Every structure is written in structure tokens, then in C-alpha cells.
Amino acid sequence: MRGLLRFASPKFWLPTVLALLVAGLLWSWVARDNPYVLPTLSSVGQQFVDEPELYVSNAATTLQEALLGLAAGTAAAVLLAVAIGESALVRRGVTPLAVILNVTPVVAIAPALVVAFGFGMTPKVIVTGLITFFPVLMNTVTGLRSVDRHVLQVFRTVNASRLDVLVRLRFPSALPYLFSSLRVVFPLSLVGAIVAEFSAAGARSGLGTLITVASSNSQLDRVFAAIACLAVMGSFMLLLVTVVERRALSWHDSQNR
Amino acid sequence: MSCEPSTDAPFVAVRDACKAYGTGPQTVHALDHVDLHVPRGRFVSVIGPSGCGKSTLLRLVAGLEQPDGGSVAICGRTAAEAGADKMIGFVPQVPALLPWLDVLGNVRILEKVNRAGTARRHRQSTTPRRGGLASDPVKLLTRLGLGDVLHRRPGQLSGGMQQRTAIARAFALEPDVLLMDEPFSALDEFTRESAQLQLLDVWQELRTTVVFVTHSIAEAVLLSDTVVVMAARPGRIAGVVDIELDRPRHHGQLDSAAMHEYEHVVREILGTAWNPREELQGESA
Hints:
heterodimer; A: mainly alpha; MetI-like fold; B: 6-stranded mixed β-sheet; 22% strand
């Protein structure tokens, strides 16, 4: 109940609404005289009225690619982080590879992935996974290491196993770090999916394909309608992470409001 | 346990322990041929200036460090064997609680690790478990004045409450020996006194063998049966004082003449141990 009341208070929604309003006014002011730089807001809105199912279906495709890539990238990163935390050998062997992977521009390897895996969903999921992998890996490695040394000593005096330490100390200690990386990679996964679609239009297109086609036809209103879809999806993804984080980390200092 | 029930046999025995840190001219002799004997059921404090190796001594007994020379035995076992059978309770300088668990969860957490050790210990045990207070975390916490905050998280507690939770966590193991490393040093004086009395209250009932490291003379005398005074550079034992004050001890004794007398004795030994020149002056006087 208190949570709902918080949303109703003007203090909560007024800053957001005001900021959007100002941005909208500036936009309209530029768009009025420069139709080939920015479309008017009304023409963008008209897109949704005219062809709602076009945006819904393309957004669904992109969202599916993003979420699958996100799941794969995050899972792989957490598993590898545990291996790195438990073994110095793995750490020394894998860290340089992870850095190489991180500095490789995905745009450069995306066409090769299309050649290897075809025009289906696989290359898009891989690209998204690659983009989300590194931030999660680095944060989780740091988090697993952030166990208080006095607590470790107490656990050592009762001869706790490595599994005990991992499950009862390291995982919970890593959660705040994991969540802060998820805040970054959830919205970032959309960028991954879009970039992959830029290099290979799929059987089922997606918002990235829609943007490529529309911009080559100078349909600016369509481009920005697709971007608006991305903005909405990104915001909801961030909201989702925040809500789950607030539940899972109620004990952590970062949640003191 | 399989140990002799006789009260005079050393239950915790450190024999001729040496421990040095660093190499060459920077070598610090934290412990130089140190002997410590703690009979079962005794409350023994180790006191000394900083750098005298009292914490190192405790860490050797806890199995957190290995001696360079000499041996550590707890009930005839090595520190590592004792740890594997969960015979050791350890209270560090800071509470070291898990922030995501509530008070009760923190006290029960050690139950859940090394379950094989718990089982082994119960099998080997010839004496019945102490039962009562230590086997019931809620009762134990209530006795330590934490009955109202069982389901609070450590972040919502005062420093004194957190440290008492850490002490309850160690007692809940029903350890054969309880090792405490300056557990009250971070507390303000009022909080410290009440924490000391609550510790005495629980100890009076459980009579756990305790090795308690402190740098407060009054604390050592109030709590202990025996005070071991250490000296620094190299870390060694300067003297041992038996405190023959009645038990159960209570707050009124803090200001008694007998108490002051013991504090004086300990301070004298500390004074001679602190600075060799003072020792010479003392002899010439």
C-alpha cells in the first residue's frame, strides 16, 4: 500500500513528466523547420495508430532475441566467474581471453556469425550474449571476492568446505555486484539484438531490420517510432531489475532510501 | 569427548610455540617459546601490549595459523582436527555477521556448515551435550538480551547487540573451547560493561573453556579465573595471575578492594614487561 501511494505523490512522477515535457517541446521546435532531421512527434505517433501490429510483432522478435542472449550471456558469465574465483589457473587462463572478446567490436564479427549460423535467431542471440557477458563476468568476479575476511575466519574455524563458503558466503556477497551489472546489461541486450539485426535481416525481421529498411527509404517517422519502442522496452527492463533487486537486496546498504 | 575428565590436565595446551613474521633484520618474533595451559572449564584471559603476540597465540589455537615451532593441542588433538570436529568457537574482533541473515539466522548458520563434523562429534561424545541454554538459540539469545531482535538484520542493530550476536553464534556451536579476540574492544564503556556481565551470566551456566584476548586489565580480572600477561618483542609470557574472586561474579565487584588488588598485580607485571628500563628501576628501588 505504501508502495502504491508513493507512485501517486507528485514528488514521484512530476520530475519525470516535466523532463519528458521539456524534451518534447525542444523536439517539436527543431522538427517544425527540419523535417529531414527529426520527424514531428505527431507523425511518429501516427505510425502506431496506422500499423500497430507491425511494431508489436517486430518488437516481440527483438525482445525475444535480447532476452535469450541475456540469459545465455549472464549464465555463462556467472559460471565462469565461479570457476575464476575458485581456481587461480582458470583465472590466469581465461581473463586475457575475456578481455580480447570484450574489445572485439561485435559489429565486425556479426556478418561472420551470420555465415556460420544462418539468418535465424542464433547469430542474434550469440551477439547479444557476447555483449552482456563481460560486464556480468567482471562484476560477479569482484562480488565473489568481496567476502569479509573475519567471516571467512569464523567459517575456517569450523572447517567449512569450499562449497559451504561459496553457497553461504560468496553467492550472497556477490548479489549486489551482480545486480548492478544486470542494470547495465538488461537495456544493453536490446542494443545487442539491434546490432545483430543490422548485419543480417532475419526470416522474422525485428526492430533493427525495420530501422534499416525505413532509414534507407527516408521514413524518419518509422525509424523514430521503432526507437520509441526500444525506449519503452528498455525502461521496463530496468524497472524489472530494480523491482527484483529491491526484494533480493533489502539487507544491503544500496537499498537504503 | 575422549579427554580425561580431570580438571587439572591441560585441556588446551600450547607447548613451546614460536612464530615469526618476515625475514632478515625485519623479522618480528610474534611468539618466542610460549607455553599456555588451560584446564577444562576455566576462563583464561591473555593480556598484553599491542604487538605482544596475544592475537597470534589465539590464532594458533584456532588453527588459523601454523606455529613455526612447538605444538598446539586441544583435548589431545591438533587445532586442525579440533576444527574439523567443530570443537572450536571463535569470536573475532569485529562481529563479522552475515548482513543478509537475521539475528537467529546468523546464530544458526554454523550449524549448517560442515555437517559431517557435527555428526562425528555427536558420535564420539561420551559426555552428554550440555543441552539447555546452548542448544536452544532462542533461549541463548534471550539470555544475552537479544530476545526482542531475533528477526532483525545486523544492519538494524547497535554495535553491542551485533557483538553479542557473534558471541551467541560461537556458544551455539556448544564448543569445547571458546576463543575470543578482543570482542569488546570496539564498544563504548557502558555497552562493554553490560556485554561483559551478560557473557559472565551465560558462561556461569555453561562453563565452557575460554581463552579470551584483551587489552583491558579490568576486563581480564573481572572475567577470568587466570590472567596470562604477555610481553612484546619478542612475544613471550611475562607472568600468570590466578584470580580467586568468588563466582558468580557481578558488577559490584568491579569496584571492590580485592578486584583492585588483582588489577594492581597485573599492572605491575605489565609494567615490568612493557619496558626493560622500568624493570631495572624496579629492582634498584
